[in-house]
Amino acid sequence: MKVLNKILSSVLAFMVAAMVVVCCWQVITRFVLGNPSKYTEEILRFALIWLTMLGAPYAYGAKQHLAIDLLVKSFEPTGQRRTQIFVEFVVLALSAAVFVVGGIAVTMNAHGQISAAMKLPMECYYACIPIGGALMILYSLNNLYHLFRDKDKEVA
């Protein structure tokens, strides 16, 4: 998981830096040159989609995602652990059903469509959905592994 985290964080950092450069280029071409680039808006739109679909699993794996745990914190440690396990199974089910299965369906449905400005196949853009879902599944399985491993350590 450390290797995956390093790769994903590097990809995300590169994407943010590239988006800043492309956004600055858009401003320069629009207001300084008076001839806005037709590619930059589409690049930024799709880069933001990919950034979101790759960033969410990364944040989830790093336990930096948004969570409301006021109620769970009031539980006993056993209840907190059971709730965490339940949440991980819900995340697994939703990631598999919605992101992976649904994402593959959406990606296949986009077959034959091309993007307006860059003329790329739309499958390239929609592929981030099942990829993000697969990453969510990996991180969720890793979290479950640690939850069950830590239980065995407590019992021993």
Automatic annotation (TrEMBL):
Family listed: Belongs to the TRAP transporter small permease family.
Q: Would you indicate the residue range of the signal peptide?
A: none
Annotated InterPro entries: DctQ (IPR055348), TRAP_DctQ (IPR007387)
Pfam families the record matches: DctQ
* UniProt keyword annotations, A-Z: Cell inner membrane, Cell membrane, Membrane, Transmembrane, Transmembrane helix, Transport
Instruction: Name the source's superkingdom.
Output: Bacteria
Q: Which residues form the Tripartite ATP-independent periplasmic transporters DctQ component domain?
A: 19-149
This one is known as TRAP transporter small permease
Localization recorded for this chain is: Cell inner membrane
Q: Where are the transmembrane segments?
A: 7-28, 43-62, 83-104, 124-141
Q: Which organism is it from?
A: Faecalibacterium faecis
Q: How does it sit in the membrane?
A: Multi-pass membrane protein
